Amino acid sequence: MALSTSLSSCNVHRGAIVPKAAKCYKECSYSSLVFKQSVLSKSTYGSNDVAQFGFFPTMKPLQWQENKKILLRGRSGCHALDVEKPCSFLAGEKFQLDDVIEAQQFDIDILNAIFQVAREMENVEKNSVKSQILKGYLMATLFYEPSTRTRLSFESAMKRLGGEVLTTENAREFSSAAKGETLEDTIRTVEGYSDIIVMRHFESGAARRAAATADIPIINAGDGPGQHPTQALLDVYTIEREIGQLDGIKVGLVGDLANGRTVRSLAYLLAKYRDVKIYFVSPDVVKMKDDIKDYLTSKGIEWEESTDLMEVASKCDVVYQTRIQRERFGERVDLYDEARGKYIVDRNVLDVMQKHAVVMHPLPRLDEITVDVDADPRAAYFRQAKNGLYIRMALLKLLLVGW
């Protein structure tokens, strides 16, 4: 079923009876402010309950089934329900997403609302009185790949909100995965100890598998060369804070664009905004893949490939540098050596950049940004890393207790 409405939240009125184990998704048309929504519930509600659900923008029902972007939990049948309610994210309402798996899940309304919560989290972090918003909740971090900023910022976020943390670092070597345990079995076990799982994995698509298995929220903290949605959220949040706008900006994505999950997720989110132009600057062996280019084209986003970093830097509001990822090349050291060191942001690049522009980097860096850039006020990458704390505090709060 479908309905036409200028409203974007998925809420079912009292009296609706909904089946167990499903999710909600919608197809959005911003030009006409018409939303076609099919709503599927995740829980069973009585006839007097108010059910609230999460949605997955940009996916038609059939595409959602075929591509398995986000898999349903449970085995119950799916039934569409007509819903119509004003777009409002009221305190205490359930968050619209059950998991955070990929950047395509978010629409403009939810992005703006998350950023508002993140700004509130800045005040929480600065408050000398410890927050108890997540007191009694426990987060498990499962990291099958190395991490510093993502793992520590999630753990800091949870503790700053009064929650507790179970953590494993290098789970690929030191967990039962080393004994051959499947990811699904690990997830089923760990969800019995925790209320939410934050997972980084070396395989693209692992986060979808985890979300399909678990009955508690899963946050994708990076899945191989696939996506890193929370990094993209903090990147867009940083751009808004630094530049003051997201519509009409020009962004240069530089470095390892073939293997960089951060730039892939960022491209998906930037496509939500108007009149954005994206430049791709990379060595030939790590050029941006066609699926991202095709997606941007389908959304009307202008993009351009270039080999001239100086020219691109002079035009852009954001120069988003990334490292060449040695771990993605396997034994092809020759290709890694060919790519590394070709594009470096240094004082010469700063000299051609506009005064309001910023340099960003998901970190860690090697030599792709010289250390003398750090002192320039346009070097935003450490402020960017700090913003990750606020975004992750916001997501944990929203997934566990709602708006």
TrEMBL record:
EC number(s) on file: 2.1.3.2
Reaction(s) the record says it catalyses: carbamoyl phosphate + L-aspartate = N-carbamoyl-L-aspartate + phosphate + H(+)
UniProtKB keywords: Allosteric enzyme, Pyrimidine biosynthesis, Transferase
Domain of life assignment: Eukaryota
Gene3D superfamilies listed in its UniProt record: Aspartate/ornithine carbamoyltransferase
InterPro entries in the cross-refs: Asp/Orn_carbamoyltranf_P-bd, Asp/Orn_carbamoylTrfase, Asp/Orn_carbamoylTrfase_sf, Asp_carbamoyltransf, Asp_carbamoyltransf_Asp/Orn-bd
Entries under SUPFAM superfamilies matching the protein: Aspartate/ornithine carbamoyltransferase
Every Aspartate/ornithine carbamoyltransferase Asp/Orn-binding domain range: 247-398
Record domain Aspartate/ornithine carbamoyltransferase carbamoyl-P binding: where: 99-240
Family membership: Belongs to the aspartate/ornithine carbamoyltransferase superfamily. ATCase family.
UniProt subunit comment: Homotrimer.
The protein's name in its UniProt record: aspartate carbamoyltransferase
Organism: Macleaya cordata (Five-seeded plume-poppy)
